[in-house]
Amino acid sequence: MFSVYTVCFFGHRQIDDFRIVEQRIERLIDKLLNEHEYVEFLVGREGEFDQLVTSAILRCRKRLDTANCSVTWVMPYLKADYVKNSDSYDNYYDSVEVCEQSANTHPKAAIQIRNRAMVERSNLCVFCVTHRSGGAYQTLRYAEKADSNIINLRK
Question: Which residues pair with 42 in a beta bridge?
């Protein structure tokens, strides 16, 4: 049995300095894939940062020609877009899941509940947070209070 190192990602919906953030993400992913036997990456799909992370993981995996990782899209609740396009999403991500803790809550609360569940499940929480507002910032504060292992790509 091999050990699994779980990493989650959170960032603002829109990113400034897109290229710089992308380079930092790729360096970190390369490092994680080289240091750990198997890495499970947990991602959302709420904005630019989430899309950037997923693309970077898939590029690094292909470039390194490695199978020691997986990318899981964690939905806060079952989304209509997924239902309509499940084949496409299932081919893009290694797995897709609905967060059990947030699935039956009010949609406005569901994302934050999902984010907290991802933090609790992870060995490392990676953030791209530049301002003190929004869901990514709230999740960063939660991870700090939970004494999680944190990297903020914007520092």
Answer: 8, 72
- Answer for the pair 89, 73: CB distance below 8 angstroms, yes or no: yes
Mean pLDDT in residue range 51-59? 95
- Taking the whole predicted model, whether its pTM rises above 0.85 is answered as yes
What amino acid is encoded at 97 in this protein? E
Q: Indicate the helix (H) or strand (E) that contains 132.
A: none
Distance in angstroms (rounded) separating the CA atoms of residues 139 and 119: 8
Give the chain's radius of gyration (CA, Å): 15
Q: In what order do the strands lie in the sheet containing 150-152?
A: 95-98, 69-75, 38-43, 4-11, 124-128, 150-152
HEC string of 32-57 equals HHHHCCEEEEEECCCCHHHHHHHHHH
Question: Cα–Cα distance between 54 and 93 in angstroms, integer?
Answer: 8
Contact status, residue 64 vs residue 79, Cβ threshold 8 Å = no
CATH number of the domain enclosing 31: 3.40.50.450
Per-residue pLDDT of 81-97, as tens digits, reads 999 999 999 999 999 99
Total number of domains constituting the chain: 1
Show the domain range for 105.
4-152
